[in-house]
Design a protein that fits this description.
Elements (H helix, E strand, L loop, with lengths): L1 E8 L6 H13 L4 E6 L11 H12 L5 E3 L12 H11 L3 E8 H4 L8 H7 L1 E5 L8 H16 L7 E3 L9 H9 L10 H9 L6
Parallel strand pairs: 1-2, 1-4, 2-3, 4-5, 5-6
Helix pairs in contact: 2-8
The chain binds adenosine-5'-triphosphate.
The site of adenosine-5'-triphosphate has 18 residues, from helix 1, strand 4, helix 4 and helix 7.
Length: about 200
C-alpha cells in the first residue's frame, strides 16, 4: 500500500513556512509524495486568481520530485470541501494510506469542517505547530488533544502526530500586507515566486 499526503490550503501565496512543513512531513513519515491541493473556491476566504496561486505553487515546488500540485478541485463547482477532494483522490490513487498535512490553527477548526467527522477518520493528521500567540510544543500538543477529545465525544477516533519542525511566523496574510504596504517580502517566499508576484503586480494596493 502506498502512503501519500495531501497538503490543502489557499496558498495565497505559497511561502517558506508551507515548504518547510511539507519537507518535514516527507522525512518524518514514510510518505512517497506530497500532493499540494490549492482550494479552487476556498469556503471561508476570498483569494487571488486560482491560476496565479497554482503558478506560484508550481514554481516553488518544481525542484522537489516528491512534490506534485493537483488541480483536481477545478473539476467541481461550488465550495472546495476537503472531504470531496479526498474521495476523488482515493478513486485516482486506490490502495493508498492517506495523510493530511495541516497547520495547528486549521486543525483546531476540524470539528466544524463540512462532514469533518467523516473526513477526520479517513486519513492520519500531520500537524504543524504554529504561533497562535506564543504556544510552545507542549501547548500545541494540548490543543491537538482537545480536538481529539471533541471528536471523541462524537464517537470519532483520529490518528495524529505533530510535525517536528521549527515554528515559522510567516503567513500568506503577512505577505499580502507587506506587498500592500510596498515593503520587502524577500526571504519570505522563494525568489522565483517573488519575481512572479512582481511581474504580475499581485497583492498591490
Ligand atoms: P492566511 O494568512 O491567508 O490565512 P496561511 O499562511 O495560513 O494563509 P494557507 O494557504 O491558508 O496559508 O495555509 C495552508 C495550511 O498551511 C493551513 O493548514 C495552515 O494552517 C498551514 N500553515 C501556513 N503557514 C504556516 C506556518 N507558518 N506554520 C504552520 N502552519 C502553517
Amino acid at each position: 500500500m502506498q502512503q501519500l499526503a495531501i497538503f490543502g490550503g489557499t496558498f495565497d501565496p505559497i511561502h517558506w513556512g508551507h515548504l518547510l512543513i511539507a519537507e518535514t512531513a516527507l522525512h518524518q513519515v514514510p510518505i512517497e509524495k506530497v500532493i499540494w491541493m490549492p482550494s479552487f473556491y476556498p469556503p471561508h476566504k476570498t483569494a487571488a486568481l486560482f491560476e496565479h496561486r497554482v503558478a506560484m505553487l508550481q514554481i516553488a515546488t518544481r525542484e522537489n520530485p516528491a512534490f506534485t500540485v493537483s488541480q483536481i478541485e477545478t473539476k467541481r463547482s461550488g465550495n472546495s470541501y476537503a472531504i470531496d477532494t479526498l474521495i476523488e483522490l482515493s478513486a485516482c490513487y486506490p490502495n493508498t494510506h492517506w495523510y493530511w498535512i495541516v497547520g495547528l490553527d486549521t486543525f483546531q477548526t476540524l470539528p466544524r469542517w463540512y462532514r469533518g467527522e467523516e473526513l477526520a477518520q479517513m486519513c492520519d493528521w500531520l500537524i504543524a505547530p504554529r504561533l497562535l500567540g506564543g504556544e510552545n510544543i507542549t501547548q500545541s500538543e494540548l490543543i491537538c488533544k482537545q480536538v481529539r477529545q471533541q471528536l471523541q465525544k462524537q464517537s470519532v477516533t483520529i490518528h495524529w502526530q505533530l510535525l517536528d519542525t521549527p515554528l515559522v511566523g510567516v503567513s500568506s496574510s503577512l505577505i499580502r500586507k507587506l506587498c500592500r504596504d510596498g515593503k520587502s517580502i524577500r526571504y519570505l517566499v522563494p525568489e522565483e515566486v517573488r519575481s512572479y508576484m512582481k511581474f504580475h503586480e499581485l497583492y498591490r494596493r
